[in-house]
Amino acid sequence: MANKQDIDFTYTTLDKIFRLSIGETADFSAAMYNGDFTMSLKDAQIAKHKFITDQLHIHQGSRVIELGSGWGPFLKYIKEEKGINGIGLTLSDGQYEACKRNGFDVYIKDCRTIKPTDFGTFDAAVSIGAFEHFCSLEEYKAGMQEKVYHNFFKTVADLLPVGGRFFLQTMTFGKNMIDCDTMDITADKNSNEYLMALTAKHLPGSWLPYGLEMLVNTAAPYFKVINSSSGRLDYIETIKQWRKMLRSFSLKKYALYSSLVIPYIRQKKISHMWQVFRISPIMVCFEREVMEHYRIVFEKV
After folding, report:
1. Is the distance from CB of 39 to CB of 122 less than 8 angstroms?
2. DSSP strand pairing (105-108 vs 87-90)
3. What is the DSSP string of 168-211?
4. Domain boundaries, the chain
5. Where are the beta strands (DSSP E) in the chain?
6. 3-class state of residue 272 by DSSP
7. Which of 101, 192, 251, 291 is the most buried (most CB within 10 A)?
8. Domain covering 4-177+206-270+291-300 in this structure, CATH number
9. pLDDT under 70 in the chain at which residues?
């Protein structure tokens, strides 16, 4: 799994830039357009949150936990719409501090180790975009990926009653995924081998599940699937909107961009980070179906 240092590299380092660009409770996960790309990003994110609360039967009085809370956009939604103070977990110092400033009940804790003795049990559980970080490339190569996921689903099941629901939104590898051993940061910059190598550097300690089937199978001892859908096209549109926001000029934001240059040069990561900013390898991987994206509603059996 991506450790705290890995998560901080991806999220805490760019914490202020994300919030200045996307909003104080930056929703850094795919929105839900359902094919209507005339919707604003804000409305599509609200549609996602409404879908989750409806599918999980979340209502006033429900106990809800979010496994990977980010900057708290879902916690904000259920607080404002349902009057619920959900509990969130993160490994990012930047996200934790931002959530605390905004009045959310968030803790720095590994989602894979939570037990009912930590915060009790819940009526519903949510994980939006955190699952991608639960297995590392090293764990995959060691043949541990399915065990990692199996253990995580058991962890979530232990927090819920029979019939309790769990919403999972995650990227996966798609039908055109390459062999991981062919990833090469020196390959042609238009190749999938280069794009995947760049993505791996951008998301250290993280490796994706191999499609919907792997998720369903590893969850099967504890959960049945209520519904599932692909959000690949929605994610492409979401990233397009983010890129406009991240590039929009503000003196404060561009001063922060400048402050990262020397640290990245020292870490020999500046060229890679520039390429991520320039081409968005994840978006291109979605377009080429090297990656997929799923929303799944599980129910504990």
Report:
1. no
2. parallel
3. EEEEEE-TTPPPGGG--TTS-TTSHHHHHHHHHHHSTT-B--SH
4. 4-177+206-270+291-300
5. 64-67, 87-90, 105-108, 124-128, 165-173, 223-230, 291-300
6. helix
7. 291
8. 3.40.50.150
9. 1-14, 249-250, 253-254, 256-257, 259-278
Tell me what pLDDT residue 268 has: 52
Two tokens, residue 220: 């099967």
Count Cα neighbours of 283 within 13 Å in the Cβ-side half-sphere: 15
Taking the CA atoms of the chain, what radius of gyration do you get in angstroms?
18
Place of tokens 């291109």: 284
189: amino acid identity, one letter: K
**Non-local CB neighbours of 191 within 8 Å, separated by 6+ positions:** none
User: Burial, 201: exposed, middle or buried (Cβ in 10 Å; 0-12, 13-18, 19+)?
Assistant: middle
Q: What are the residues whose beta carbons fall under 8 Å from the beta carbon of 142, sequence distance 6 or more? A: none
Tokens of 81: 């719409």
Q: How far apart are CA 118 and CA 122, in angstroms?
A: 12
Digit-coded pLDDT (tens) for 270-281: 445 545 556 789
Enter the tokens of residue 74.
Answer: 């879902």
- Give the C-alpha separation, 125 to 2, whole Å: 21
pLDDT for res 274: 46
